[in-house]
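Hello forum,

I keep getting stuck at the same step: I have a sequence, I want structure tokens, and every attempt I make locally crashes halfway through. Rather than fight my setup again tonight, could one of you with a working pipeline run this one for me? It's a single chain of 280 residues.
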Amino acid sequence: MIIPLKKDSLASLKANFHTHSSFCDGKNTLSEMAKAAYEKGITHLGFSSHAIFPFSGTWHIQLKDFESYKNEIDRLKEEYKGRMKIYMGFEADWLPPAAAPVKTYYSKWKPDFLIGSVHYVSSEKGLASVDHKTDMVKRGIDFAFDGDGRKMVKAYFETQRKMLETCDFDILAHPDLVRKRNGELSLFDENEEWYKKELELTADAIAKAGVIAEINTGAIVRGAMNDVYPSATFLSMLKERNVPVCISSDAHTAQGVDGAYERGIEAALKAGYTELTYPC
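Reply #2:
Ran it on my machine without issues. Output:
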């Protein structure tokens, strides 16, 4: 689906394909999220529960709940038929060698789309999270990367590129999530050449993989950062490579289902995009 992008509107279409619920770490039920989306004028809603199949994480959908998740979304598809199109997907974590955003892994539930996501990075010493509370992110860097933020950042982008090279999914989630706690921890300087080189290499990998990169407004909504993912610099690189983009709120509450959407539009237009692309 292609949505023409205009300065003051999205014509008659408005989509969000990155939506969480109480099946993972969201605060509202699928039904509550759908109701809020419809009331806010969303015409195409994609649910994307955190998943780390074949495992169950503390903030991922539990293995025992996959079927219930699918069944409830199927019910909502019927409830909103003719009013709002609803899609069932997963935000699948890349945690090699076992967990990966590969469509065949999730084929039993016949998802309409799959989001590929990197939340964890590893070293020979262990695992670190790039998407946690500030003190936990720092603890992981200290443990796995000897306190070296640059090492962690390089590992993050290398991990993401590996996922893009080897996995099979539709949308790349928050392409520079590693920026989330940088304002508080001052781990790296986004203007340094080594960092820009990581962005260039990753932009090349995204273009080669043929996936959609999301402009994610979730950090703004949750007060973690006053900017979208990806940064303006990164987004310009993606535009230069003709990488398609969509806008996602990464909603974890009904109230935030279209949170800071206008900031996503602003970022896309500034980078030179004239349309949004969704996998449906």
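The mean pLDDT is 95. If your local run keeps crashing, start a new thread with the error log.
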